[in-house]
Each structure stands twice: as C-alpha cells, then as structure tokens.
C-alpha cells in the first residue's frame, strides 16, 4: 500500500466529515462513515509504514480535521452555501378554554377530511370523520384529541 492510497483514504474521510458539519448537519451517517474511513487510513498507515509514520499520520489527521472545521466556522466561507433557514410554523395549538366539544362554528374552507373552521372568532385546523363539508356550512366539534379537533356538519 502506498502513501497515496493512505492519503486518499484520509481525504475521503475528511471530506465526509466536512460535508456532515457544514452542508448536511444532522444526518450523522456521513460523519460516522468519514470517521471510520479516517481511522482505517490511520490503521493502514500504522500497519504498512510503522509506528512513527502511523503516529504522525494520526496526529496530522486530527490536527488537520480540527483546524479545517475551526477555520470553516470562523471565516464564514460557507455561509452562502449552508442552510440557515428555520421553521417558524406552529402546529395547531388548542386552548381548551376557547373551544370545547359541542361548540358550533363555520367551515372556512372545503373540508375534505382536513380543513379550516371558525369557532368563537378563532380559526382552527379541523378534521372531519370522513365526510366532505362545503365552505360556509355550519359545523360542530364532536371530539378534541391530541391537538386535533374533530367535527361534523351540523344539521
């Protein structure tokens, strides 16, 4: 095994860790595979070139990986490429003081299993029990469970 192969293995491992840290955080698979690849490169270095070369490879790989991540964060070189958006949406938060079983409202949209309903001047996402309810029809709350409001058309 030549040094070029060891360097290639270490570079692929570093690249996977770098991608995980800066471009696809949270997956963890790239970091795990990259770390194992770098460990394999260091082990190959120890087994083929001796303890001194293996130790130098280990220290060099650790220092290079650490410095590249620190420099990547501090320089902001990848700010244009990294994902910075956050999800600011909220799920259907139900205040049980404002709505309860038996309340009447109006369908604000066509409810084909899920739609919007207006109860006590507050708009909620509602769920029918499988029936289709046209917009503007009167509806009634029949059940509230796990932040879901189940309704039926009021007759």
């Amino acid at each position: 095994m030549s040094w070029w192969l060891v360097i290639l293995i270490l570079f692929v491992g570093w690249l996977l860790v770098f991608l995980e840290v800066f471009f696809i955080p949270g997956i963890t698979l790239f970091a795990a595979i990259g770390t194992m690849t770098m460990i394999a490169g260091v082990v190959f270095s120890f087994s083929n070139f001796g303890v001194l070369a293996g130790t130098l490879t280990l220290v060099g790989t650790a220092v290079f990986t650490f410095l590249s991540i620190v420099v990547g964060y501090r320089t902001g070189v990848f700010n244009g490429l990294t994902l910075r958006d956050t999800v600011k949406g909220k799920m259907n938060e139900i205040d049980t003081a404002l709505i309860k079983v038996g309340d009447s409202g109006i369908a604000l949209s066509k409810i084909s299993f899920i739609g919007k309903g207006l109860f006590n001047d507050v708009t909620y996402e509602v769920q029918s029990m499988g029936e289709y309810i046209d917009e503007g029809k009167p509806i009634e709350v029949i059940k509230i469970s796990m932040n879901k409001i189940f309704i039926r058309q009021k007759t």
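Residues 69 and 75 are 10 Å apart (CA to CA). Strands lie at 104-107, 111-119, 122-133, 138-145, 148-153.
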